[in-house]
Structures are given as structure tokens and as C-alpha cells.
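Consider the following input, taken from an annotated entry for NUDIX domain-containing protein (Fructobacillus broussonetiae).
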Amino acid sequence: MEQNYIARMRAKVGHEGMIFNSAFGVLFNEDRTEILLEKRGDSEVGYGFPGGFLEYGDSPMQAVVREFKEETNLDVEVVRLLGIATHVNPKNSWGDAQETISMGLEVKLKDGEDVKNMKADGTETLACEFVAVNPRPKMFVPAAQNTLERVLTENEESDRPWLREPKKG
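Applying the prediction step yields:
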């Protein structure tokens, strides 16, 4: 089995700090009262957004479309950029220093696609479902919780994307 981009780069640089790009998709229901979230295979609590790390040569838009298909079995297309967030982790769960720059993209189902086709991959995504946005769903890590809040509060009135920088400290 071919290693993914991150595994190939880690094999070269070890645990040294690296910057990775990721993209996640936000799919609302028709009246924007629910959002599609996933139960992740790598976390016992909370939800995550469908998405993942960019492979070399991917655009964020290509990555979101690919990851949505892999994780939820849904065909989507990108509507717009919601925002960019960055998170520095001096020691992730694999013991590596990592900064992740994440691009949030609103998506919609492709013409002819139906949510009845939704099916979790069973590995990265254990379940996927539309979840009410009020009260706020619990996300799998604090950074994702902050991003969810931004998605839900800073994109309704304006098409201006948000930028979230890491807390100093």
C-alpha cells in the first residue's frame, strides 16, 4: 500500500516541525439548521468536519471533493471559501511537531446526488449525519470547536471569509 504524503514526508524529516495544509467541507441542510458532521475513527468523543490533508498537487477544492467522497460517499462541489484557520501543535498524537493550515469550504451536493447515498467509510469516518447547529454540537478537539463557531456565526451576513490565527501564548 502506498504511503500518503504526510507519511512520506515524515519518513524524511522525522519529528521536526512541519506545516501541512488541510481542507474541510461544510454541508448545510436546506434551511441551514443542521450541518453534516462525522464521528471520526481517531477520536472517541465529538464530531469532525469531512475533510483531510492535501496531497501534493491537490488544490483545496480537489481535496474537499475527494475527502467528501471517501468519507461520506457523497459527490459535492465547492460553493465558496468560508475561511482559513491555523493551529500549532508542538506534539501531536504521533509525537510530531505540526502546524496545520485549514481551509473551510462550503459545499453543496452535485446535481442528481441524494443524501440517501450517504455512507461512512467505516475507517476514518465511523458515522456521518446531519446534526442540529443549536445547541452547538461537541467537536472532537477545541480547535474544531472554535472553527465550528466561526462557521456558524461569521458567514451568515457576509461572504467575507474569516481568518483565525493561533492564540499567542
